[in-house]
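Model it.
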Amino acid sequence: MSSKKSKGLSRRRFVSSAVAGGVGLAGVAVLAGCGETQVVEVVKEVPVETVKEVVKEVAVVEERVVTKEVEKIVTVEAMAAKPQALTLVFATWWALERGGFGLYEQKYMDLYEAQNPHITMEYRNWPWAEFHTKLLTQAAAGTAPDAFAHSNVFYPKYVKRGGALSLDEWVKTNPGFDIDDFLPVSLQLSTVDGKLYGLPHISSAWGIIYNKQVMEDAGITESPNDLDARGEWNWQTNLEMLQRITKRDSDGKAERLGQGDPGLRFRSSHQWAWQNGGEALKQPTLDEFVLNEPASAEAVQWIADSFNVHGVTATAADLIGGARSDVNSGRLGMIYTWFNFSAHEGQPVDIVYPPAGPVNRVTILHTNSLGVSTSTKYPDEAIGYIGLQASQQGDVDQIKFGMGIVLRKSNLAEMERVNRTDFAIDHAEVVGEVIETGRVFDINEFHQETLDAVNPVMEEIRDGAPAKEKLDEIKPVVDDILAPMRG
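Modeled.
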């Protein structure tokens, strides 16, 4: 046996190994003498218990060393990074200083700043008449606000020109924001080419607000809602009621008129066309003008006749303080308008679904969106802000500030309660009916150009020109505007 093999094994380790392996003590004495150096002393017998104690002691020492090193690693701590201070710009058409919905905007900016102390909110508001043009201009220059409100009648154009970010990924990765809680119709105009570019917000329901005292003064014992409940509220019964409300002096001058101007314009004409089985633009492509087709032209003529033939509808010159003010004062019996009740607090008003046409009972749901600019440096923060406004609480708060309607299914019952109790609307359930049964306008990226072409013609029809003839004349003009959509 060579000394090379035995050199790496200490006496203690070897003894331990031998005992563990079952080698007897006599064998140990013999093996210990192998190699170049002879062992001449006699090895004493060692009790097995003593050998076991030695092994146990070594194991304990090794365990303590490992434990000390682990303790050193655990004591290391990492420092968290501080958020970078930033200013987030939000734009809309509501003026903060005027109260009303400006108070809502202020509330949510304050709330977002409180939740994110490193963020300062900057508010921009431009008048409605110039808001969307200004936003387009700034988007083209790369200077658009980080987040913004937007009317969906102009949104497809803004999206097509690259002004807004898609929100699909954010919705997908934020399960706490329940996009399925929104009524599908509320997402329709925020969705372009299959992608979601806006969160529903500040929307409106189109119906009739009427003065109950005027009805009583005119001797009308059955309200529009009584007729609607029996399925008898239609174009003809509506006309008969307007005729009873209208009151003129001996010279024929109007002292009280049946209704305010329902807005004989391209957008409002959608509703009357739908009620008569027609359309404003060809479905579903929206790339051809069809308001001149018989059913639609007949509907436009019906409304025009309320001015010129029946004399029950007020022109702008007939109003004293504006349509809402005049229905409050009793100069008008009713008005077609958006359901905003803050302007009628304390007044004897109620609401009703628009009268059914010869074919359909349908009305307009107008939706708006909150979007994020493609030029923003802070997309996560901007999306976070519009997500707060479009949250369940943000949605229902619109009603509590007297503006707009809710678009989340979970808020419909609360909306009805607030409108019934806070604004004293007897038939508050009508707002929910509009939300669930209304249609949105036919909107494409050429909507503004279509308005510019059609609205002057609608004014001529209001003033007495035959509807079918004038709409036939404007059709090729609008179809030319829409030509790019047809490829």
